[in-house]
Design a protein that fits this description.
The complex is a heterodimer of chains A (241) and B (340). Chain A has 241 residues and is α/β, with parallel strands linked by helices. Chain A has helices at residues 44-51, 74-79, 97-104, 112-121, 124-127, 138-149, 168-183, 195-201, 219-224, 226-233, 237-240; strands at residues 4-15, 18-29, 33-37, 59-64, 67-68, 82-85, 156-160, 187-191, 204-209, 212-218. Chain A contains 11 helices and 10 strands. The two termini of chain B are 36 Å apart. In chain B, strand 2 (181-184) and strand 3 (187-190) form a beta hairpin. The chains are: A alpha/beta (241), B mainly alpha (340).
Chain lengths: 241, 340
Amino acid sequence: MTEPLLQLSGVHTHIGPYHILHGVDFAVPAGELTMLLGRNGAGKTTTLRTIMGLWQASSGRIVFDGRDITSASTPDIARSGIAYVPEAMGIFTDLTVRENIVLAARSGPVDKNRLDWILGLFPALKRFWNLPAGNLSGGQKQMLAIARAIAEPRRLLLIDEPTKGLAPVMVRSMIEAFKALKASGETILLVEQNFYAASALGDNVVVMDDGRIVHAGAMRELVTDKNLQQRLLGLSLDAHQ
Amino acid sequence: MSDMTADTSAATELPRAKMDWLPLLLVPALALLALPFVGSPSTWVTLTVAGLAMGMMIFLMASGLTLVFGLMDIINFGHGVFISLGAYATLLVLGPLAGWAQADSVGLNLALLLLCILCAMAVTGLVGAVFERVIVRPVYGSHLKQILVTMGGLIVTEQAIHAIWGASPIPIPLPQSLRGAFVLGDIVMERFRVVAVVIGLVVFFGMQLLLNRTRIGLLIRAGVENPEMVEALGYRIRRLFVSVFIAGSALAGLGGVMWAFYRQTLTAGMGMEVMVLVFIVIIIGGLGSVGGCFVGSILVALVANYVGFIEPKLALISNILVMALVLIWRPEGLFPVARR
């Protein structure tokens, strides 16, 4: 494992009276794709939102690229180089596809070569370039959400369940897009329920249950060990193929 | 590739977004529907121009509130006091430049109106900044508290107006060349109403340009829909909130100037008196929608004018009736933006 770009140490998060994260510890190595797995309600989304500062950690430490961001504001965290794609995608439906991407490029005009690369990853977006994003299908909205996250070079992408509710053909094209992103050297922390997609993409895997990390290691170890899959996820990879 | 013209080769071949024309057609449809009931075409034109002018004044007073409501989710019952304050701020200009109002010069008269507008916008913008910091900021996220404290802010500011300018109504003169009417055959159009239409259109198209052609406009539109995501993209939404609140207060001040010259009398409660109408048009238009607010304002004013002429007894309920019918047709308003 290479040097971690993001490190969570003993992170606890409360939402109102509820104690959701119970001392979460894990690292995201630079230049690799780390999968965050777990059943519904395990705390995956809360973990991403806590990293982004959308919910404040009540204790523990989050260090990104050597800087403590535990108490930083969401805009400061985003400006430090972390892009976030929420589970609900967060698309501005009243804005056009173009406007969504223009807004994501904080530092100015979107670089032409980068835009060509992004539209190469998600060619469907070209067809709807000047149309309100609300007109897009669920899969196209997910593409736009990811395209928006990479409109400018970022240090780390946090992506929450990108294949949720998508048709199999769309899931396959998302997997191809993530492979291309990974090949470009992006560091990604990806929450996923679909173990087939996760195993096809992940370098590393972190498994959560009940707000705690129950496993962290290389993805190939989990893929080859059916007993471990059964114990951690209650399913084997075969069931997802 | 420029910032706001980011394009792709494929994009040029593609269809543009479909415009929702139906709500826009309501205005001419309503005007045409009223013609046979009004009878005389010249009276109809007079009523229509008067309705458009009233609609523009309502739009000027309401446009700031719809942005504040849509973007910040703030129910500002104190908005009316910025209308009153804007109206009273004209005295700061009319006092030293009283001669300009009586001068027989269109240039001086219009310059006086412009100075009144600038002064009112500066005063209400400044008070808006203090109002947001002291009264609104502590109650973000709680509608009930917002209603209570902004009502409190309204009462305090109204009393401050009484303390500064006195409790008696103050007459203000309409600049010389804005008095009277243009007469074209049988058609009579008051000069000030025509000026109000022009100013309303300038503000509307200015706001459309700002919202659709600039990054700050994109941010406001995005923030109305999903403020959390705007923050996650790295923008400080709180600063945007403050800016929009100040701009909304300044727009209310501008509306207050036009409303003051229209009434030619100042009272501290004049802003509060139009607030029911202001809330009706932002609900009809769709929360957060400047275009919806514009169409809603014209619709409400035209209906009030036509109904007031055709069946005066129904004039009082005509606005509520328009709101009910629009909400039955489109429960989120004509052009809904904020999804709450």
